[in-house]
Amino acid sequence: MAFTAIAAFLYVMTLVGVCIWVFQDAERRGKSGWLAGLMVFFLGFPGGLLAWLLFRPKLPDRTQSPSKETKPWPQS
Predict the structure, then answer these.
(1) What mean pLDDT do residues 2-30 have?
(2) Cα distances (Å, whole numbers) of residue 49 to 19, 40, 57, 61
(3) What are the boundaries of each domain within the chain?
(4) Model's pTM, two decimal places?
(5) What is residue 71's DSSP assignment?
(6) Alpha-carbon 69 to chain mean position
(7) Residue 24: what pLDDT?
């Protein structure tokens, strides 16, 4: 009985941790973190995590090469 309770507790804590990570990852990728987190929660662990890893969008490109017209420091 105690083993089952400990196993259930560890499963729930792992699921909550994965949902938090998926929420943050989805927000970083420009998607709804709540929707992605709920998807993982209802699909369970590890199925929900696997679904997110397979179907998540790519990270937005944040690298912009500075143009010749922009100056990094204000001219006084």
Answers:
(1) 93
(2) 8, 6, 14, 24
(3) 2-55
(4) 0.71
(5) -
(6) 36
(7) 95
